[in-house]
Amino acid sequence: MIPREIIDEIRARCDIEDVIGGYVTLKRAGSNVKGLCPFHSEKTPSFTVYPSSQSFYCFGCGAGGDVITFTMKYHSLDYAGAVEYLAQRAGITIPQSGEHEERGVPRKRIYELNLAVARYFRECLFDPVTGREAMDYLVNDRKLSPATIKRFGLGFAPNHPFALLQHLRSLGFTDEEMTAGYIEAKSQKTGKPYSIFRNRVMFPIIDTSGNVIAFGGRVMDDSKPKYLNSSDTPAFKKSKNLFALNYAKGECAERMILCEGYMDVIALHAAGFPYAVATLGTAITSDQARLMTKYTKKVIITYDSDEAGQKATDRAMQILGEVGMDVRVLSMSGAKDPDEYIKKYGAPQFSRLLDESKYGFYYKLDGILAKHDINIPEEKIKAAEEITYLISTFDSSVERDIYISLSSAKLSVVPEAMKNDVERKRKRSYRAAKAKEEQNARLAARGIGDKVNPDTAKYVAASAAEEAILGLMLEFPEHRSAVVSGRVALTEDDFVTALGKRIFSAVCELEASDGGFDYSLLGESFTPEEMGRMQKMMRHRRELSENGLDVLINSAERLKNEVNKTKIKNTDDRIAAIEAKRRRLKENS
Q1: pLDDT at position 99
Q2: Which of 230, 283, 335, 506 minimizes the number of CB atoms within 10 Å of its CB?
Q3: 204: part of which helix (H) or strand (E)?
Q4: Across the chain, what does the average pLDDT equal?
């Protein structure tokens, strides 16, 4: 088997738009790109590439998946062959069997280790002697209540190089496990192990399934580095996680606040804004932006007002815009960050600032104008085309009028002409979306001609419940965890379609493995059309604002009810057939 980290590196280097663009002429369509499908004949493009999720889907023939799936189908290769083809393209050498050794510590063991570490740090913080200085810093300097400290599981790492390690060894953890979990390191001078986190207030990072996956540590003075964060481990990738998302995920359907640091997030939660999150010691990544789209459609950026914060804001706006997020920016005066602002002016005033936050339109407008020389007529037309499309994406007519007025002045064109183009684009987008919605609804309702899952036509209601369950599990790690752990009772036998059974089993098997779930690995067992069906399930869930545990539980109950109805109907049909046969025999005797 090809090591998972090699597959991850291959996918990272082989951008799906670049790869597919080598075979298909792609044209920009909003945040996505479209072209004529290479897998069936068509005159109108129905083949869409989604750069934000690194996936593709054809609405005409149903092929879909990621860059590996595309390579499999286009070049008629199996999964391993497609991975090797892309590795060669990216200049990556795949180790031969036995050459590569995966990290020996399983993810589950790192979870257990981190939980023990978090408990140790918490005990140290609440110890009246050991944690006195840290508790004083949190309560008196940062104005955190004991309830907030407990809610976020804050702790303290004593200024001792060996105390934590000795404690963990007494619990049965090995040096190998502590090193893999970024808890222990070895001195280059003496070769002796020591605790990485010392004399710092500690912030446990918890995933949406409730696992402690990493830590952030902050000094209580002006020492450097100010923050020390966990490096990547078998249980943690900092580029793919967000601090406090475990709390914010159930509160952020309307909007999410993106902060720069842990303390800003905690201060906002404590002040009544439980939908705040932060990146983990790095600038925002595309993976984190895509993660946000699973839970909300609007993000308000509240980075520091200094020069570094403004640069980070520009980058965040660009990355969030690329994944189709509604991005706004909070303007603060009199304070450098949300924590300081709330302390000085109070939560109600901060709430008003949130409501007054501005769209990222102005940033995007400047980018378009910088890209085109509007003194040249052809370039002005191109700029106007991009700007009118951008304005057409806003729902508020008042905002559109304001942006049209501003943009027309910048371009020296008549506002009415620009408004006509905007409205024409809106009508076109609406008609396309409506037609697609109606077509999908008709096909889903009847299940007729479904070649990917032919059982749909026989079990229409049950199939709908199956797709809801599978979409939730494919898209949300906390739902996979709930099913695999048994908190939500579901088994393969509860599913009625053959495809549903296979997807459910494969997802559960990957989730329970040491490496954890990875959508790309499903391509080894499923066809591009089946991968496309999974893409459709996930995309449907992203479009809905309600994706909580209650939705999963209700869908499971609905599926089981439909299965029971089917069993009763089949039993009644068999009894009726036996009775009819008896009557015929009696009549003929």
Answers
A1: 37
A2: 283
A3: strand 200-206
A4: 88
Helices (H), 236-346: 245-248, 262-270, 286-293, 307-322, 338-345
Structure tokens at 317: 């706006």
Residue entry with tokens 């934590």: 164
DSSP letter, residue 546: -
Q: Which residues contact 201 (CB under 8 A, 6 or more apart)?
A: 125, 134, 137, 138, 154, 155, 156, 217, 218, 219, 220
Distances in whole angstroms, Cα of residue 347 to Cα of each of 46, 256, 273, 589: 48, 16, 9, 89
Between 440 and 225, residue with greater pLDDT: 225
Give yes or no for residue 336 having a pLDDT over 50. Answer: yes
CB neighbour burial string for 394-413, b if at least 16 within 10 angstroms, e if fewer: beeeeebeebbebbbebbeb
d(CA 566, CA 393): 45
Residue-wise pLDDT tens digits, 362-388? 877 877 898 899 999 999 999 999 999
How far is Cα 207 from Cα 246, in angstroms, rounded to an integer? 6
Are 295 and 288 in contact, with CB atoms under 8 Å apart? no
150 CB-side CA count, 13 A? 4
Q: Around 79, how many Cα atoms within 13 Å sit in the side-chain half-sphere?
A: 15
Beta-sheet pairing, 32-35 with 27-29: antiparallel
- Tell me how far apart the alpha carbons of residues 196 and 178 are, in angstroms, rounded to a whole number: 10
Cβ 186 vs Cβ 193: under 8 Å:
yes
Q: For residue 418, which of 402, 395, 430 has the smallest C-alpha distance?
A: 402
Place of tokens 């920016």: 329
% residues pLDDT > 90 (the chain): 55
Q: In what order do the strands lie in the sheet with 326-329?
A: 276-278, 256-259, 298-301, 326-329, 358-359
Cross-strand pairs, 32: 29
Alpha-carbon distances of 55 from 15, 39, 52, 350, rounded to whole Å: 10, 16, 8, 38
Q: Measure the CA–CA gap between 28 and 36, rounded to whole angstroms.
A: 13
pLDDT in tens, 289-331: 878 988 998 999 998 877 787 788 888 988 888 777 889 988 8
Is the N-terminal amide bond of 234 cis, ω within 30° of 0?
no
DSSP state of 226: S
Higher-scoring residue by pLDDT: 523, 67: 67
The amino acid at 329: V
Structure tokens at 264: 């800003």
Q: Which two tokens stand for residue 566?
A: 């089917």
Phi-psi map region of 526: left, alpha, beta (phi>0 left; psi -120 to 50 alpha): beta
- At 403, the amino acid letter reads Y
